[in-house]
Amino acid sequence: MARKYKRLSYTDRKTIETMCKGGKKAEEIAEAMGVHRATIYHELQRGGAGSGKRQQYSAELAQKAI
Fold first, then answer.
1. Where are the domains of the chain?
2. pLDDT digits (tens, 9 = 90+) for 17-49
């Protein structure tokens, strides 16, 4: 069976930003959004939240990066 991938929208990115600022872990965010945790980790890097600085994630920065 082929895998089904989900492309994140700007609304999804805003949700990630809100959850990050609320202190949620990447695994919790992934479960709530129905995506693999690697998707969230990649998104956090794209949005400027590398090096464990999850509070700095920006949905706008991530959207511009794609």
1. 10-65
2. 999 999 999 999 999 999 999 999 999 988 887
